[in-house]
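Exam prep: given the inputs below (a chain plus molybdenum atom), describe the expected output before reading on.
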Amino acid sequence: MDVTEAVPTATHCPYCALQCAQTLTRTPTGVEVSARDFPTNRGGMCQKGWTSARLLDVPDRLTTPLLRVGGELVEVDWDTALDHLAGRLAAIRAESGPDAVAVFGGGGLTNEKAYQLGKFARVALGTANIDYNGRFCMSSAAAAANRSLGLDRGLPFPLEDLRGAQAVLLLGSNLAETMPPGLNHLADVRAGGGLLVVDPRRSATAALAADGGGLHLQPVPGTDLPVLLGLTHVVLRDGLADEQYLATRTSGAEDVRASVSAWWPERVEQVTGVPVASLVRAARRLAAASPVHGGTGGYVLTGRGVEQSSQGTDTVTAAINLALVLGLCGRQGSGYGAITGQGNGQGGREHGQKADQLPGYRMIDDPAARAHVAGVWGVHPDSLPGRGLPAVALLASLGTPGGPRALMVHGANVRVSAPNAGDVAERLAALDLLVVCDIVPSETARLADVVLPVTQWAEEEGTMTSLEGRVIRRRRAVPAPDGVRSELWILSELARRLGAPSRWPTAPAEVFDELARASAGGRADYSGLSHARLDGGEALFWPCPAVPAGSPAHPGTPRPFLDRFPTPDGRARMVPVEHRGPQERPDAGRPLHLVTGRVLQHYQSGAQTRRVPELLAASPEAFAELHPLTAERLGVADGVWVRLSNRRGEVRVRARLSADVRTDTVFVPFHFPGAGSVNEITNDAVDPVSQMPEFKVCAVDLRPEVPAGAAPAPAVPTRRGGGR
Ligand SMILES: Nc1nc2c(c(=O)[nH]1)N[C@H]1C(S)=C(S)[C@@H](COP(=O)(O)OP(=O)(O)OC[C@H]3O[C@@H](n4cnc5c(=O)[nH]c(N)nc54)[C@H](O)[C@@H]3O)O[C@H]1N2
Ligand SMILES: Nc1nc2c(c(=O)[nH]1)N[C@H]1C(S)=C(S)[C@@H](COP(=O)(O)OP(=O)(O)OC[C@H]3O[C@@H](n4cnc5c(=O)[nH]c(N)nc54)[C@H](O)[C@@H]3O)O[C@H]1N2
Ligand code: SF4
Ligand SMILES: [Mo]
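Solution:
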């Protein structure tokens, strides 16, 4: 490696939405990573961040375009790959119409790439069918926040604000494993006994809360909504609500009051298993933190544990209602927030890769939004397609009569990470053309007809938007390997070959300037930002609109709700919600709740982290965490192979006995492919509002592979090929 320009580069971690600041320095032996001080990480990183440089020299890094010829992926040069691809895309469009080509994006893409991908779909392909993996991640929280607060900015306050809180209610988030440095902001509230965690497992985070004198509520999986209705009931019943706040800053409070009146704590206990005393204690501790009772501040935060559910939008709505009843939202030092997950999960949902959105968080069926964005793109508004299919429906439609015949995947590994992934494999196999852009041969890339190698974090310039809505700079620290291209270049080359109108710049700063113009006046307004401005000040919160020449630049908006909510009447809307329960419940044949989630060492489908030796060694395979009493009943010993099955398929993993999980529940992480890939059996039922799938809860049967005293069972047949 050329080290003549070994200048340390200030950038941010390639993985999650905390976007810990890191410095990359080229040395004669490779790249050295160190943590840098930044408000989200305060000089900390997790094991994934510290080992991230290993991503730069993974042995099977993609460096050449690949084309499937006679069943095999063979290396070709870029012109061959792009000419072939453009020809196939044009032919499919000519034969079956523009919606026959679909696009699947990712929340890890920079703002520039996400924006360009959305524009490419609408302008160069003319397809309505673009959606992304954020549908698996943030859609329910987004839908609820838009509905209740008028704006979806995951955390509408800087993370550091949590430091002053007296109580924090954390529902379905295991920060200790998913954003370890973020936990530092909760150290004081934990020490004061104010950390209240709701999780069917005694997760690392729940244990921290309980050991700090806080509370761990351990409900039946999928019953957070009645827990929240019960908490709100207790607050209202005991006269703890902030009535003046309700009268001046909200609408609809009476409807919510009526809707929770029948959720007596005793009834909540019956449905959720959370004891009355715990529920009442949690309600009182959170209420005591409210400024109306002289507290220093309280927060309600949600994670995927409650959102990845067929009632996720309503559950988040109930969490917001609880925060509103206590007067917490739109007040400095208190609030509601959803903890965004992917590196650019926030920016990724603002700039147009979502089926119903245009850049700047504009809605694609709003005529004014279409006119503005079409103006920036130099096309007629009528040429823009309408709403496309959301992710789960999109994947289910691939290769069906009248459905898309081609799919372009940018920044997602759906073969491993989509719900009911065996069915997804069948749909991918039914396509005429699967195109995957990636940095490594992911499980999805291996199924593709065309694979294009792209640059990764330390090899590119761009911007990311952190979980708090801070727009930050990703900077190039090392040259990309020979043969690898940036996605901006690939999209511009394809647009040119397809004869698309508009301009297709390839320089990230230039793409950002166009994005800023397209976002001007939208909910997520970036028009006052540029790479140059961000380079001067490191990070600014959106909305950050442009100002008339001569005026001082807009300072950004760390806390958007302080004066009013961005709703027509300026008030937060309280929306009554009801409990329906998960779509699938345990029965005699499938007696256990299966819940899924993450471990510290692996990121998502594991495509990146399974290639980092230290991380793979620390966490080599999937496992099923189950209670020793359940294990005893089923004849399962610690460490033996077990099979989990339901009507969608079967998974084979080792048992890990732990009293941290409920006796009616089994937990499996989703980071692994093959026989241990839990998404073979997760449910693809979706939330009716957000269309987000129910990853977190389904019903399963669990059996030891070799029952005590029996002969070994035959090897697991692969249920569905998925190979092409
Ligand atoms: N190590 C690591 N960190 C990551 C990621 C990663 O893959 N690995 N991914 C990033 C991304 S994209 C995201 S979205 C975030 C996700 O971050 P989290 O939301 O913290 O992650 P999960 O582990 O998916 O789920 C959190 C918890 O939900 C619990 N849970 C399951 N079912 C229920 C339920 O019915 N109710 C309640 N209350 N809880 C339930 C699980 O037991 C789990 O402890 O993490 C980000 N950070
Ligand atoms: N059972 C279960 N399933 C889940 C979840 C769960 O909790 N339980 N969580 C869901 C959630 S919250 C999420 S966010 C999804 C995520 O799941 P995926 O969408 O599969 O996410 P990743 O594994 O991060 O996949 C990203 C892919 O993009 C590649 N990549 C990285 N950077 C770039 C880039 O700049 N350009 C391109 N083209 N490629 C790039 C990586 O190598 C990797 O192959 O999983 C969901 N699936
Ligand atoms: S917490 Fe997230 S951003 Fe920070 S080092 Fe770990 S993976 Fe990277
Ligand atoms: Mo996510």
